[in-house]
Design brief:
The protein has one helix and seven strands; from the N terminus they run E-E-E-E-E-E-E-H. It has one helix at residues 89-103, and strands spanning 2-3, 6-10, 14-21, 28-35, 39-45, 53-59, 81-84. The protein starts with a strand and ends with a helix. The strands form two sheets. The chain has a four-stranded antiparallel β-sheet, with no helix packed on it.
Length: 106
C-alpha cells in the first residue's frame, strides 16, 4: 500500500515500511523491516479533517529517530510510522487486523 510518499508491506512474518527521501539528484528510498515478534503495540489513529491518519508500531529495539529529509509531500516521522489519507482507511484497518492475527492477538 502506498500513501504520502511511504509504502507498507506485510508478508505474514515481517512488516516493511519504505519512505521516499531526498538523496542527491534522483532521490531514493529508506526501508525499515521488522518481524511481527518484535512488535509490542500498534496504534492506529484514523485521518481527520486536513490531517493524515497514522499507523504507529512500537517495535522492540527500533530507532525512534525522525526522518529528516523526506521527499516532497512526505512526512517527518520515524520509520515505525505509516501516514495515510482517508482513501486508504479501509485497507489500513484490514492490514492491522492481519498483523494482529499474526501476533496472536485476535
Amino acid at each position: 500500500m502506498h500513501a504520502r510518499r511511504r509504502s507498507i508491506r506485510f508478508n505474514g512474518k515481517e512488516v516493511t515500511i519504505s519512505a521516499a527521501v531526498k538523496d542527491g539528484l534522483l532521490g531514493g528510498d529508506k526501508r525499515h523491516t521488522f518481524r511481527v515478534s518484535q512488535i509490542k503495540d500498534i496504534n492506529n489513529t484514523p485521518p481527520g479533517f486536513s490531517r493524515p491518519g497514522r499507523l504507529v508500531f512500537t517495535v522492540e529495539g527500533a530507532s525512534k529517530d525522525v526522518l529528516e529529509n523526506p521527499a516532497s509531500g512526505g512526512d517527518r516521522v520515524d520509520m515505525n510510522t505509516f501516514c495515510y489519507g482517508s482513501l486508504e482507511s479501509g485497507a489500513v484497518r484490514k492490514l492491522v487486523a492481519e498483523i494482529e492475527k499474526a501476533m496472536g492477538r485476535k
